Here is the input.
Amino acid sequence: MQALKLARKYPSFSQEEMMQLVDQFNQIDLDSTGRLPKSTVLTALSTNASSSSPAGKYTYDQVRETLKTVSIDSSGQVELDDFVDLVDKLRSGAGATAGQVHRGGALSGLMGGTAPASSAQAQSSAAHASGGGKVLVKGSNTNITHSINEDERTEFTRHINQVLAGDADIGDRLPIPTDTFQIFDECRDGLLLAKLINDSVPDTIDERVLNKASKAKAPSAMPSAKSKATLNNFQMTENNNLVITSAKSLGLSVVNIGATDLNEGREHLILGLIWQIIRRGLLAKIDIKLHPELYRLLEDGETLEQFLRLPPDQILLRWFNFHLKAANWPRRVSNFSKDVSDGENYTVLLNQLKPNECSRAPLQEKDLHQRAEKVLQNADAIGCRKYLTPSSLVAGNAKLNLAFVANLFNTWPGLEPLEENERPVIEDFDAEGEREARVFTLWLNSLDVEPGVYDLFEDLKDGLVLLQAFDKVIPGSVTWRRVAKTPMPLSRFKAVENTNYCLDLAKQNHMHIVGIQGADLVDGQRTLTLGLVWQMMRRNILSTMASLSKGGREISDSDIVKWANEQVQKGGKRSTMRSFKDPSLKDAKFFLDLLESLKPGYVDYSLVYDGRTDEECKANAKLAISIARKLGSLIFIVPEDIVDVRPRLVLTFCAALMALQAGGL
Here is the structure.
């Protein structure tokens, strides 16, 4: 009966063909629910399909792009009618060009632009600029098209296959093909991205809170298929909330990306997020605490403090140039694009690092692509052919070149170890104010200030970032015609004018500012700078909560403490907090009880330790932070901040939970 109805709706199929399609759908639908996950349909019609099957066999990307045009309900599951509609579209040639790589003028035409002149030079230039070509994908509606860099997709997928191979939860999904868009579908449930974050910055996410589905049996119609766990949309959203809030807590730029974007596999957004996660992990190792020998990169007259203000990518360029100078090579690099695109500097760098394995022979090659291939063969000889392809090297792809150089440094730094008497004194992360500086830096960056803050005390000296923050926290508070913006860098006189204006604004808005002058901020006085930024962050937190409260009443610290205790009591728990300095908060049990009261059943108490040691307390704090992020709360603190009971940072954690509840948790 069902087949007859569908045959009338889709006249391109004969009655017999329709019956075969229905039978194929039912064979795939092992649980007889009448619904199939998109991932199952994708593989059933591509990777695991037979050309002789009723539906036919298509490329993965063709099925994927065509599936976007099928009207699937909010469950995201494919019903029989959807399945037939999909096959009907595929048979008529829909999505036939999906996944094709477009180079040069072909891309320009497809994107609606004007194709370049038909000269070989124009075509070559456009192809090189793409760094391996672009792949076009449909956006959120039919009028939007996004382009994905082919080399970036390929190399990032290869990186994921390598670092997550053998993972207990997702290892069975790997390796992911590097020449299709499957990587974006594998990211939809949040598990892969969460694992990637933990690979780049270990212990960011407590994986115990991730939603993981039980393994489903492979459909009998696809005996060679891998078993695959599936999550429902709600579970995927929770995982992706955790991914996004965790990424923000690491200082990654996650602007205009929501859990829904990840759920739906939005390619350009996911690729950008993957790059930021990989970049964070690669650059995290370029740290003088891990590599004291970086001290050798200091230039004449430069202090260690000045050197430590450099962001990791600038230190990487300094390292590159150090070796070029040591090799008596006349050229230097100031970027990861144009300055490396001819392969010459790479040739000299590799030869300087490992002269026995990497010769300078590529310098004799005139063809840039051939030279690039020889450079990468040298890199392969020392185990570092990763991230770059000849086309992306010649194109000067800044992302892939940065990744290549960072991996090269992490593998073969080539710097002489320091003698004991040469070792510099470096402040530890736990030094006074460093934890707060980290949190305040992340908070300022979450406001999307420009330029982004890397060194809190250095980057606030001219007052411009602080004034942007004031305007975000208290909209309209800054009269920008009063602000000195040029010429950059600002003179000390103009910087002091700006920072004095910041302090005027703080006083006008009743912030507690005592004994601070603009010159103190310009001079990078740490305690005073931290004091001002804390007052701004606190105002931002309390204003947010006031806007969510009944009548917009201003919220005080004692209100937050009272609220937290009342919530825990309502949840039937006995733990309490006296203040944000309460030493009993150390074991994080109070926060776990608070989270349980906000979302009953969310805390698995079998995972909670007694808190007898610092390690047990840290594990509890890590669990609490990850649960809060899973609920969608933006938490900047780390577990050690709770274990050490840092009052200001504990306040931000409680306030974030209070705002979460007020926002309709």
Remarks:
- The radius of gyration is 28 Å.
